[in-house]
Amino acid sequence: MSQYLDRVEPEEVRFLMDFSEFKEYVTEMLGDANDLVTIDIQYDKIEDRTGATIIRPMVKLNEISTLNEEQRHLILDSGFSIDREPFDNGDYAMEQIFGPQYTIANATEDADGSFFTIEMPYRFFISQKN
Questions:
Q1: Model confidence over 42-85: pLDDT tens digits?
Q2: Which of 85, 42, 38 is nearest to 65 (CA)?
Q3: Which helix (H) or strand (E) holds 77?
Q4: Which residues contact 115 (CB under 8 A, 6 or more apart)?
């Protein structure tokens, strides 16, 4: 490592997260409720009032069969919901992974698959890791 690199502090940290990796994390978060649903990962690009593009992850949960009340509560206890908007589930999952100070900078689909580029402030990253 360069002798100078120790003296430089980055401003932000960038992650690349494949959709299949995101799906694995959601599966883990669902716990025992995982067997009750199928998971579909998508995203949407939305323009805000200022014209900036916001990328929103979507986690759509589909019931495998008709759920009883106990099974619905098992899903709700995981923090997810079948009845909520997929955006809400996507935001919840991202916040569980990265904390509240993250930004999805890009969503890319290419020959290697689909992935998100996620950024977060370096100082927040360090505080979360410790």
A1: 999 999 899 999 999 999 999 998 899 999 999 999 999 998 89
A2: 38
A3: helix 69-77
A4: 16, 17, 18, 19, 107, 108
3-class state of residue 84 by DSSP? coil
Q: Is 17 helix (H, G, I), strand (E, B) or coil?
A: strand
Residue 125: count other Cβ atoms within 10 Å of its Cβ. 19
Measured CA to CA, the distance from residue 97 to residue 20 in angstroms comes to 14
Both structure tokens of 86:
């997929």
Residue 79 φ then ψ, to 5°: 100, -10
Q: CA torsion sign, 68 to 70 to 71 to 76?
A: positive
- Alpha-carbon distance of 107 to 116, in angstroms, equals 4
> Could you tell me the pLDDT band of residue 1, with boundaries at 50, 70 and 90?
low
The stretch 15-36 carries a mean pLDDT of 97
What is the mean pLDDT of the segment spanning 33-46?
A: 96
Q: What angle do CA 32, 26, 113 make, to 5 degrees?
A: 140
